[in-house]
Amino acid sequence: MSFKDNKEYGKIRVKDITLSPATLKDAFIMSRLYLRAFEHDPNRAIPFPRCVGMSGETYIRAAQMNKAKDLSMDIVSTDIVLKAMVQFENEDRKLLEALAGFAHWTSPDGPRKRTIWEWILSTIVFPICNFFSPIGDTPAETKRQIKELFQNQLNATFGPGGKAYNRRYWHLRTICVDPDWQGFGIGNKLLKWSFDKAAESDSVVYLETSPMGLNFYLAKGFQITTSLPAIEINGIHFSAPGMIWMPTLPQEK
């Protein structure tokens, strides 16, 4: 891999990216990293955040549940937090290491049944709300995005995505990468970890995102399965789509 620019270290070349359980010692760096990621790209750097302080709260709770030890990756654990450590060298060929990203999951839960209210939100309220919420830079772009959201919602409700909703799932609550370390495949590696775990445990990966981050996760193989109550981004109200990824989509009958 060729050298790339990094604001803190100058020209660097990544040698390896490793994932390992986070500990309380990482809390300060992870909190700072989360804030930097949120400020840099609040709509795509992380699956939809409820608030800026969410990461610290869930991280500390997870650490306390595990008695301040390494957060277990056992399937019976409730909360799992992995950090992404990057080993790299600078132009002087000095080998260095940095914590560049992390992700927080709740381990497999379910299966669950879709409630009548969720069905109404997914099938009726979510598509209609988007007709009254300008989400594109131009009227044409808004129309295109509304059409995509409406079609995806119908496909997810009555197609494979709707069937996947009743599977056990890994809830991906937070995934973020330091802005200075984006473009090195760190986020993809964290996401792939949950894909591999889902395949091992015959479950799916669930997350909530914003409409602006929707296409990113659709490109990763996620499908919309539900929508959440309205939220606000930059003064505009949206319904936040819930999305599911699964190793093998169920076949239509």
Topology:
Layout: E1 4-6, E2 10-21, H1 27-40, H2 54-65, E3 79-90, E4 95-109, H3 116-131, H4 139-158, H5 160-164, E5 169-177, H6 186-200, E6 204-208, H7 214-219, E7 223-233, E8 236-245
Parallel strand pairs: 5-6
Antiparallel strand pairs: 1-2, 2-3, 3-4, 4-5, 6-8, 7-8
The count of strands amounts to: 8
Gyration radius from CA atoms, angstroms: 19 Å
Largest sheet entry: 8 strands, mixed
Q: So what's the CATH class of the largest domain?
A: Alpha Beta
- Percent of residues in helices comes to 25-40%
Q: Which regions have little confidence, pLDDT < 50, spanning 5+ residues? A: 44-77, 249-253
In quaternary terms, these chains amount to: single chain
The appropriate CATH architecture of the largest domain is 3-Layer(aba) Sandwich
Counting DSSP H or I runs of 4 or more residues, the number of helices is 7
CATH fold call of the largest domain = Aminopeptidase
Shape: globular
Succession of helices and strands = EEHHEEHHHEHEHEE
Portion of residues in beta strands equals: 25-35%
GO molecular function, one term: acyltransferase activity, transferring groups other than amino-acyl groups
Domain N-acetyltransferase: 86-251
Protein name: N-acetyltransferase domain-containing protein
